[in-house]
């Protein structure tokens, strides 16, 4: 197992405010330590600004909670980011994403989707793999979403794509939920596109 490159912070390293935030988060998600948060909290005020920005993406974003989790889970699958999958499979259940829908997200836009969801997933795949959405894909997506929602999709994909890179590069370990995680125990979570070397960052499956 590869060790984290930056150790999660303790009270002394984080200070009282950031330490308290990380403890509240860990308790809320029922883990001993929320490693992503206790690592990023070492950045001081930047961490708190990132928390606010992230919350405006999820759960208080422009898209519906269901759409948001579909996007995040597809990004996590493409990036092969176990940390994101562990958390957002759980969050997705609360938003109404059952096992059958999760399997479709893993398959991607070629699964049996309604036109709006197919356009959304196609856009996610293009953004992660090419860093752009082609004119045809944009036109199709714009037929289903408002301009405000279109901007939100691009920003949401960028947020979780970037987060997968951060998790992988810093070698942030997956959180201990006390039982096998849904991401590690379900063989359906690996899609052919998720194994592409161009999409994976080192250690992102932790």
Automatic annotation (TrEMBL):
Residues 179-206 have a biased composition (Low complexity). It comes from the Bacteria. Pfam families: CMD (PF02627). Coiled coil: none annotated. The keyword Membrane does not apply. InterPro entries: AhpD-like, CMD-like. Residues 174-206 are annotated as: Disordered. Keywords: Oxidoreductase, Peroxidase. Residues 46-125 form the Carboxymuconolactone decarboxylase-like domain. SUPFAM superfamilies: AhpD-like (SSF69118). GO terms for molecular function: peroxiredoxin activity. This is Alkylhydroperoxidase AhpD family core domain-containing protein. It comes from Williamsia sterculiae.
């Amino acid at each position: 197992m590869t060790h984290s490159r930056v150790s999660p912070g303790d009270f002394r390293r984080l200070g009282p405010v950031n330490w308290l935030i990380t403890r509240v988060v860990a308790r809320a998600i029922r883990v001993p330590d929320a490693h992503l948060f206790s690592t990023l909290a070492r950045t001081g005020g930047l961490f708190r600004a990132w928390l606010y920005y992230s919350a405006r993406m999820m759960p208080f974003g422009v898209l519906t909670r269901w759409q948001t989790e579909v996007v995040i889970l597809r990004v996590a699958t493409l990036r092969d980011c176990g940390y994101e999958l562990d958390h957002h499979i759980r969050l997705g259940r609360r938003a109404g994403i059952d096992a059958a829908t999760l399997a479709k997200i893993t398959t991607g836009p070629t699964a049996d989707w309604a036109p709006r969801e197919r356009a959304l997933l196609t856009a996610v795949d293009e953004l992660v793999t090419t860093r752009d959405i082609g004119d045809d894909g944009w036109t199709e997506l714009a037929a289903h979403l408002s301009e405000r929602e279109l901007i939100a999709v691009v920003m949401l994909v960028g947020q979780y794509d970037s987060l997968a890179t951060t998790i992988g590069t810093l070698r942030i370990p997956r959180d201990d939920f006390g039982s096998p995680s849904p991401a590690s125990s379900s063989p359906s979570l690996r899609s052919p596109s998720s194994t592409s070397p161009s999409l994976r960052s080192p250690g992102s499956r932790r």
